[in-house]
Amino acid sequence: MPKYFSCFVISVFFFICLLSFEIFASEAMELNNQGVEAYNLKDYEKAILFLSRALSLSPDSEIVQNNLSNALQALAEEENKRGNFKKAIELVDGAIKINSNNFFAHLQKGVFLLNSGQLLDAIRHLEMAVRLKPGYLDAHELLGEAYYRDNDILSARTQWEYVLQMEPNRKQLKERYDKACREEVVENSFSKTVSQSRHFNLTYPKEITYKIRSYVLSVLEQAYLEIGRKLGGIFPAGPIQVILYDIQQFEAVVQMGQTVGGVYDGKIRIPVINEEGEELSDEEIRRRIYHEYVHVVVYELLKDKVPWWVNEGLAENFSKEFSNREKMILEKFVNNNGLIPYNRLEKISLKDMFASETKMSLAYLQSHATVNMLWSKYGQGRFLNFIQALKRSENPEEAIRNIYHLDYAGLSKGVIQFIQR
Ligand SMILES: [Zn+2]
Prior knowledge:
Blueprint lengths: L25 H15 L3 H14 L4 H20 L3 H14 L4 H13 L3 H14 L4 H13 L3 H14 L4 H18 L5 E3 L3 E4 L6 H21 L9 E7 H8 L8 E2 L3 E6 L8 H21 L5 H10 L6 H14 L12 H6 L1 H22 L1 H13 L3 H9 L3 H13 L1
Parallel strand pairs: 2-3, 3-5
Antiparallel strand pairs: 1-2, 4-5
Bound molecules: zinc ion.
């Protein structure tokens, strides 16, 4: 089960200046002014070209330096919004190279790194931003977020408390802060029980045995390779935080009730000890890890541009078989009620989740069947195209139509045929 935060975006508002001819060689002036004109038309690439040439002619002009930085940062922000974090980072690096004390550039770079999951570098740049402009609340909030994702809850709390003190009505931050406090209470008792593998950091309570820990880490690494390959070579930089619990601790943290087998909310959280205090079977642990890890990769690919049924369908499909038993349950439901309309499966709220357990399990089952059908009938390549189409499309049905030439009605028909085979 996933819970998402969307990709961070900073609103950029830069002024850039024209040059008058008294001060400058006329060619540099001309290039600068053409750059400004392109910038004002939001053609940042062209602006960068002109301004770079102007700067090479007048390398000491502060005005040209600032103009070029602003053009680089404006384009960087656009690339960030499109999810091209690598490109965004390269551009903002250009601005930092011009002036290493550019507060806003460090803040932006921190955000881009945070969006691309490179936590340690993100922390470095956000700390720098806070040093350059202490008291700028968004920078403190983002630094808190980076600490939090790195599992340093105490440092995260310090930043967030400061922000909330200065501005108590940041509602979303307040919720995030409260959740972090709940986690801290539970996870503090884990003391410093942390294990690591190449791509994962594992935190767990004392009673989790060495056997489970090493098993969990090895399954995580397998999932990293296997799911990453299946979804087109997606390997998050990490380290990815994974927290193990017993079932009571898990409920205290996520507050979602008993039927939930795991959560991905930026960290993978999985209960591995049941109410009787027994360890879950290897197979069950493996299934939960694969399921949640699919959400990690899907988040890396699509952030929040993923319909619920695609996200859960993939997670189910890569963590367990769509067996005859599942087929029969779904078929029986379909014969009585028909499929759940796909537009209702695009977003599922926590309220739906608690409303009816049977309904929820059918929603999972239908999503599983759908992804299984698309994957097995049309192949991996098509599915990867579908994922790219989701990134670009206004809505999921448009993406389905573009790639599979099916609308939701056609998709339903295909799924019904598939389960009645
Ligand atoms: Zn899930």
